[in-house]
Amino acid sequence: EADPGGSWEEDLSGGETEVSECFRMPPVDRETKDNLIRKYGGYISTLKHEFSKKKKKGKLPKEARQILFDWWNLHYNWPYPTEADKVALAESTGLDQRQINNWFINQRKRHWKPSESVQFNLMDSVCGPIVIND
């Protein structure tokens, strides 16, 4: 059957009638299409619903970021929250712990340089104290 508004071939070719073989498709069988929609329509709507529930990427809420920044500023010398800190931050911000963890990882990577005393303390804890004999 011809589509009165133009064929699918014309749509693909920009109005030209010559279309390569790889784009040729059989005409849509309306009955088959209706059967497929009846059979799988529920799955499609379920998938659409699941995708719509996913959180959109973007900035965290301003209030949550402020709470995290406040904690960060209080603990700048060692900005590694304990598990208890993370639970408390999650409760006070409404974020989940994965978001809390990611925020601190990114914040440290972008904005934190350990002081020399922290670096030496880390080295001492890993290697033992360094003794220099004169």
Automatic annotation (TrEMBL):
A Gene Ontology molecular function term for this protein is:
DNA-binding transcription factor activity, RNA polymerase II-specific
Record-linked SUPFAM superfamilies: Homeodomain-like
The residue ranges flagged as biased composition, category Acidic residues, are 1-13
- Please list the residue ranges annotated as the ELK domain: 31-51
Q: Which domain of life is it from?
A: Eukaryota
Q: Where in the cell is it found?
A: Nucleus
Query: Which residue intervals make up region (Disordered)?
Result: 1-25
Keywords, comma-separated and alphabetical = DNA-binding, Homeobox, Nucleus
All residue ranges annotated as the Homeobox domain in the record: 51-114
Q: Which SMART domains match?
A: ELK (SM01188), HOX (SM00389)
**Residues annotated as DNA-binding region?**
52-115
Q: Which Pfam families match?
A: ELK (PF03789), Homeobox_KN (PF05920)
Q: Identify this protein by name.
A: Homeobox domain-containing protein
